[in-house]
Amino acid sequence: MKLFTHENRDQSPETRQAYALYEILHTAVDFIAAICFLIGSVLFFWSDTLFAGTWLFVIGSIFFTMKPTIRLVREIRLYQMGKKQRLADQVEA
Q1: DSSP category for residue 11
Q2: Tens digit of pLDDT for each residue in 41-87?
Q3: What 3-state class would DSSP assign to 47?
Q4: Mean pLDDT across the stretch 11-15?
Q5: R_g (Cα) of the chain, nearest Å
Q6: 5 part of a folded domain
Q7: Domain presence at residue 21
Q8: Which domain holds residue 55?
Q9: 7 located within any domain
Q10: Alpha helical stretches, state H, the chain
């Protein structure tokens, strides 16, 4: 079994649920990062808010960095769930 394959998410109801939860988390992080960049961009129009805009860009960058981390953690988790299921299937056989 490999990482980043569709079969990992469709192994059982538990893997489908885990996949869905990670997708919701990934989408939420993506949305927060985009909002930080949008607001930060607007704040760059005025010199009084330039500092706040810069910080929102830094925060947005941190959230964008979290996205691939969430995907990797999700794939490792699904892989581990699949290994446990295979072991359980071997014990039952």
Answers
A1: S
A2: 999 999 999 999 999 999 999 999 999 999 999 999 998 888 776 66
A3: helix
A4: 87
A5: 19
A6: no
A7: yes
A8: 13-92
A9: no
A10: 6-9, 13-43, 50-92
- Mean pLDDT throughout 6-23? 88
List b or e across 21-53, with b for residues whose CB sees 16 or more CB atoms inside 10 angstroms.
ebeebbeebeebbeebbebbeebeeeeeeeeeb
Alpha-carbon distance of 53 to 68, in angstroms, equals 24
Report the candidate in 68, 67, 62, 31 with the shortest Cα–Cα distance to residue 39: 31
- Total domains present in the chain: 1
Q: Is 5 helix (H, G, I), strand (E, B) or coil?
A: coil
Answer yes or no: is 4 within a domain. Answer: no
pLDDT tens digit sequence for 21-39 = 999 999 999 999 999 999 9
| Residues whose CB falls within 8 Å of the CB of residue 3, separated by 6 or more in sequence, listed in order | 75, 76, 79
35: left (phi over 0), alpha (psi -120 to 50) or beta: alpha
SS3 4: coil
